[in-house]
Amino acid sequence: QQQVKQSPQSLIVQKGGIPIINCAYENTAFDYFPWYQQFPGKGPALLIAIRPDVSEKKEGRFTISFNKSAKQFSLHIMDSQPGDSATYFCAALTSGSRLTFGEGTQLTVNP
Amino acid sequence: KAGVTQTPRYLIKTRGQQVTLSCSPISGHRSVSWYQQTPGQGLQFLFEYFSETQRNKGNFPGRFSGRQFSNSRSEMNVSTLELGDSALYLCASSLGSGVTGELFFGEGSRLTVL
Predict the structure, then answer these.
(1) What is the rounded radius of gyration, in angstroms, for the C-alpha atoms of chain B?
(2) Per DSSP, what are the bridge partners of residue B43?
(3) Which residues, 6+ apart, have CB-to-CB distance to A60 below 8 Å?
């Protein structure tokens, strides 16, 4: 009930490509869905987030698509760059600061 | 604005010892939460403190404990260390009141248990 399932586990794209990372959840009490980017040796950094009353949110090259009925949400990275190579985590929040994280996706953007 | 500061960044302990990790949240943030990150289990919630009170707790044994001080700084303690406690321990801060959700993480304390 508390799980967030993330796929794929790893993803390799060419520079300029549009990697898509998908997440699915079960708990309908989740009301905030952030994405975090983590570089080796660093803590996760908040990238973009969405609430379930919105179907899409765009910030720069990053877009979240949210499908409330399917209980799924995804991250799209437009015009990906080698500097975007990192591990991406989706997460979901019900109350306070208790985030439930997906398993993570290791993204590699080749030059 | 300074970010979340965690100390120490790296430490090595042996089984049976105890360890204390420290976290200074972003100025003005009153909520501090702790997460454990391992390759096998990913990111898992340990506990959250708000205004010096534990507000939420994850599924970890009682060996894991924490506290928050009046200046919002937080510490977590792990007693009787086990090999499986080797992990990156991350602290996150947020405003903590109302519906916010924006958590900002520190760079973590990497604990190795030998």
Answers:
(1) 13
(2) B37
(3) none
Report pLDDT for B98. 55
Inform me whether the pLDDT recorded for A1 exceeds 70. no
Q: pLDDT higher for B61 or B2?
A: B61
Structure tokens at A54: 């919105």
* Residue-wise pLDDT tens digits, B28-78: 999 999 999 999 889 999 999 999 999 889 999 999 999 999 999 999 999
Residues contacting residue B34 through CB under 8 Å, at least 6 positions apart: B23, B45, B46, B47, B48, B66, B74, B76, B89, B90, B91, B92
Chain A CB contacts of B41 below 8 Å: none
Could you tell me the two tokens for B67? 């506290």
In b/e form, how buried is each residue of B45-59, taking b as 16+ CB within 10 angstroms? bbbbbbeeeebbebe
Does A104 contact B90 at a Cβ distance shorter than 8 Å? no
Q: What's the rounded Cα separation, in Å, for the pair B13 and B113?
A: 5
Q: Residue A9 has what DSSP assignment?
A: S
Residue A46 touches chain B, beta carbons under 8 Å: yes
Q: Which two tokens stand for residue A67?
A: 């499908």
Amino acid found at A74: S
